[in-house]
Design brief:
Blueprint lengths: L10 H10 L1 H7 L17 E3 L7 H14 L5 E2 L10 E9 L20 E3 L7 H12 L4 E9 L3 E6 L2 H4 L6 E8 L4 E11 L9 E9 L7 E3 L5 E5 L5 E8 L3 H8 L4
Length: 260
Amino acid sequence: MWKRRRQPMSDKQFLQLCKTDFSAALKLNKLWRGDLIPNLPITKNIFCLNDRIYDIEKLKQDLECVVSNTETGWEDKGKGAEFLNIWKSITLKGYQGKIQPFLETHNLVENSVNPYKYTDNMKHCNYIREILTEIEKNGSEVYLVRLLSLVPGKWVGFHTDNSVFKDKMNIIRCHIPIVTDPKCKMFLGYPTSYFPKLIQTNKYKANPFFNCHLDAGRLWYTNVNCLHAVENKSDIVRVHLVVDIKPTKEMLQNIYGKFS
């Protein structure tokens, strides 16, 4: 006697399963493995690391000053003609003091010191320097630091940055939004397809299952090992200060709970 074949689950049904029974969703999605799996609970992937609210006007003053005076200008992060002039950066601190618009893997310690150095752009950002100095005084190391902008009406598709952040106990990515809007959101996604023959950083297609707006002036942890995307549906250019740091034990406790 033949058995009736089970109908494949729709995207809508799978999204509901993610919300109600995450472990069951993981069993069904064979692509959702390793670093792609988000922290649980889901809210532990995008959240404020502390209660500090930085001075937004001073952050905007630094932004205006560096944009007006930078010798490098905004560095285009777009790959391919259709992505040009959409996603841009200004490097404030890079490996050996170099401009670094794209994801690069470097040692976090060389000759017993942090090899990331301030670029000339940093001389226009006095308040941001104060913030970074304070982060270091609290026990962190500061690595790559950039201002990242996204123009209105655009979307940075799902990707993972685990080539750099795989060592999650020693490096995390944080955001301090400077210019933003409730219509600017970060998404987490579950993988729907895999293209092993494509030579690209993002080899996955994904659907969103969680999103969050990052309020201005706060220090946000973002889990960029899992599939994530960014959307700007507002009419302003979204600008974040993005800082890669060595997490303190307190930060690790907040992110992962108990750890060995």
